[in-house]
Every structure is written in C-alpha cells, then in structure tokens.
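Practice record 12: protein with FE2/S2 (inorganic) cluster.
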Amino acid sequence: MNLKLRIWRQKNANAKGRLVDYELQNVSPDASFLEMLDLLNENLIMSGEVPVAFDHDCREGICGTCGMMINGVAHGPEAAITTCQLHMRHFNDGDTIVIEPWRAKAFPVIKDLIVDRSAFERIIQTGGFISVSTGSAPDANAIPIAKEKSDMSMDAATCIGCGACVAACPNASAMLFAASKVSHLALLPQGQTERYERVVHMVKTMDEEKFGNCTNIGECSAVCPKEISLDFIAMMNRDLIKATLMGIS
Ligand code: SF4
Ligand code: FES
C-alpha cells in the first residue's frame, strides 16, 4: 500500500505545531498502525530528519499509552481497539491519513503525538486505591462477592487510562475514566470503607485538573477501546450525591 500521511509535528510543549505531509510506500496491509509509523520513522532517520515522536509500550492493548487521533477519531476507525491493535488492512491504497495528538487542555502536547496524561495519575492518587489494612492474602472464597457485582467491577477495572474518552469528548471530560476507577472499587466489599471520600476526592481533582463536565454526549464510551459503559458515570454521580447528603467534602 502507498499512503499519504498528514502528521502533527510540534517540537515541544511551547512550540507552535503544524500538520506536515509525508508519502510512505510499500506498507504491508498486515502491519499494525504503529509498525507503519515505525517504517515512516526509519525512512525519516535514513534521510537525516527527526522521527515522529509517539508513545507506545505493550503494543497489545494493555498499557494505554499509544492513543492518537486518526482521521479525527480517537484510536482510529475500528471499534473497541487501541491504536496499536489497528492494522493497515482497514485502510486503502492511496488513502490520506491525518494523525494528531489528543486535544485537551488537561493533556498538553509534549512533542508531536505525545501528550502529558499525568493529570490522570493525579486523579488516581487522590482515591484510586484501598488504604485499609488487608492482612495476608485471604482464601479466594473468604469474601463472597455476587457474580453480577464481580463482573461489573471487572468491566470497570478494564480501563487502561488511555485518555481516548477525554480526546473524543467535546467538553474534554474525564468522567468515564474517573467513573471506571471509582466504580471498580465501589462495587467490592473491600472498597466500602473509603467509598464516599474516594468519589468526592477524585471528582474534585478531576475538576482542578481542568477536565470539562459530562453533558451525556456518549462519545467517550463510543471510542473507548474497553467499551466502558456510561452506566458507570451514572453510578459515580449517585455516589457523589450520597456523599454530599452525608456531608462529606
Ligand atoms: S474509560 Fe476507556 S477511553 Fe477512557 S481512559 Fe479508560 S480505557 Fe481509555
Ligand atoms: S501500546 Fe500499550 S495499549 Fe497500545
């Protein structure tokens, strides 16, 4: 396949970025999207140019680092996958592909396609953990948990913190991410002790980090590679109301 690429190039956080056109020949339809970018970077290095900076680690949909906007869609045209799981067979010979970083005030661009997602870490730091003493490892069946509850908790826990939800939301809201992190603990007995403090602290940090609010558009869930449901946002909002009624701030 021969492709035309329009890629956002930006030297650093303070530099002005712009879209730069590249032509790339002989791309295998079996290559992953990141392998296609590797090929481009090899060509750029061979011709003495600066390669395109992009984030990646596991390349199997687990770490959440590889997100980018592909033709205006977070993680590209295929549903329920990350950028590293996208393959070039989903594009056509001769296509022009526009590749940009996540766009959100809370995720400033570091270089080219890499953004700073540490705002997510700061949300986690204010509540995404259990601090009660749990002692030694209990038997697996010592704390019975209903199957429905454990399945829901597991669904929420599949969030990989990629940030696609924020990038896709017109409000740059982090509600789906925060709701996943709040809900997977709120659904388990171990998460009950700090349940209401947790939701208050994490939502407060989310607001301080300048993420927007949710207006029920649903783009977040539509682009989420783990198909996290909007139900978790409703669950988090219910816990937040309960916490307010309990006087927790
Ligand atoms: S909720 Fe989905 S889109 Fe948002 S950070 Fe988690 S995995 Fe990524
Ligand atoms: S590189 Fe880890 S999810 Fe894509």
